[in-house]
């Protein structure tokens, strides 16, 4: 595939600073391993719900979004087969201070997230209060809300917060779909870039992930610098939870999981 041109093309690539995204994109960011020829990538980091909104506004060429949001934005964006986050054992967790009273007001990490979309499908008649994902635990602990929906590393650190898990949406999803992987995040590419170019971006993402897996220490400082929680054990657990074979290529099984998620997206409208 040739993409030669008179001057390098610059594209905007936006991802979250979470360890799984940095592990996948870090080698590309650092210019290590195989790189797209004649292309300069300008990288932006933002919270996942900020990325969801930015994608809806068409602000980036390539952008990581919640899988549910990816399904909503397919008119102008293609869902790339690489770079996504699929949960195999882990998923969002609904937590509260007590199990005695069903929650009515729930903090969620953004209304467009996959987590909020699944919660709407699993529970009815609740009020969702959006906030940045890392503020949810404190909102629950200080009784600003009845319960909170945890994602990213906060979902992996539940035991440290002294909160009760009311609903594990990863387990709910597995039971509801008969064991499909849970699509949490996907990479969107602007359709106007063309199929050939987006195919090259997919290959670049795979090459970046392959380089990280071959030389993780080369990307580790960047992962640690961008992460909210920098404990090595937490970083490793986060990457193991959300970087897997589906991150390299979602394949048919991943596409089946997205098709199942689409029912939740339609339900939550």
What's the rounded overall pLDDT mean?
Answer: 94
* Succession of helices and strands: EHEHEHEEEEHEHEHHEHEHHHHH
- Intertermini distance: 40 Å
Whole-number radius of gyration?
18 Å
- By CATH reckoning, the class of the largest domain would read Alpha Beta
Number of domains: 2
> What is the correct CATH architecture of the largest domain?
3-Layer(aba) Sandwich
* Major sheet: 6 strands, mixed
pLDDT under 50 segments (min length 5)?
Answer: none
CATH topology name of the largest domain, in short, is: D-Maltodextrin-Binding Protein, domain 2
Helix percentage: 40-55%
CATH superfamily of the largest domain: Periplasmic binding protein-like II
Percent in strands: 15-25%
Shape: globular
Number of H/I helices: 13
The chain-level structural class is: alpha/beta
Number of E-type strands? 11
Describe this structure in words.
The protein has helices at residues 19-29, 48-56, 67-72, 114-122, 136-141, 152-156, 158-161, 169-177, 195-214, 216-226, 232-242, 245-248, 251-267, and strands spanning 9-15, 39-45, 62-66, 77-79, 85-87, 93-96, 105-108, 127-130, 147-150, 164-168, 182-190. With 269 residues, the protein is α/β, with parallel strands linked by helices. The protein folds into two domains: 9-87 and 181-267, Periplasmic binding protein-like II (D-Maltodextrin-Binding Protein, domain 2), CATH 3.40.190; 93-177, D-Maltodextrin-Binding Protein, domain 2, CATH 3.40.190. Strands 1, 2, 3, 4, 5 and 11 form a six-stranded mixed β-sheet that branches. The chain has a five-stranded mixed β-sheet with strand order 8-7-9-6-10. Helix 1 crosses helix 9, helix 1 crosses helix 10 (216-226) and helix 9 (195-214) crosses helix 10. The chain is globular, with a radius of gyration of 18 Å. The model has no long low-confidence stretch (mean pLDDT 94).
């Amino acid at each position: 595939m040739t993409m030669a041109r008179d001057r390098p093309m610059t594209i905007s690539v936006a991802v979250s600073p979470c360890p799984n995204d940095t592990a996948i994109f870090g080698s590309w960011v650092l210019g290590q391993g195989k790189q797209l020829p004649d292309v300069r990538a300008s990288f932006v980091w933002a919270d996942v719900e900020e990325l969801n909104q930015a994608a809806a506004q068409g602000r980036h060429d390539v952008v990581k979004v919640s899988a549910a949001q990816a399904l909503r934005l397919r008119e102008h964006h293609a869902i790339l087969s690489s770079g996504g986050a699929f949960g195999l054992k882990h998923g969002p967790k609904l937590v509260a201070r007590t199990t005695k009273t069903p929650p009515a007001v729930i903090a969620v990490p953004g209304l467009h997230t996959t987590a909020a979309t699944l919660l709407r499908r699993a529970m009815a008649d609740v009020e969702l209060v959006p906030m940045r994902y890392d503020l949810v635990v404190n909102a629950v602990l200080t009784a600003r809300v009845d319960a909170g929906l945890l994602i990213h590393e906060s979902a992996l650190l539940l035991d440290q917060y002294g909160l009760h898990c009311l609903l594990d949406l990863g387990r709910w999803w597995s039971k509801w779909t008969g064991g499909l992987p849970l699509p949490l995040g996907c990479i969107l590419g602007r359709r106007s870039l063309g199929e050939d170019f987006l195919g090259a971006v997919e290959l670049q993402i795979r090459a970046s992930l392959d380089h990280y897996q071959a030389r993780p220490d080369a990307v580790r400082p960047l992962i640690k610098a961008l992460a909210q929680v920098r404990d090595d054990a937490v970083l490793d657990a986060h990457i193991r939870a959300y970087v897997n074979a589906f991150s390299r290529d979602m394949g048919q099984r991943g596409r089946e999981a997205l098709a199942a998620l689409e029912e939740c997206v339609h339900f939550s409208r």
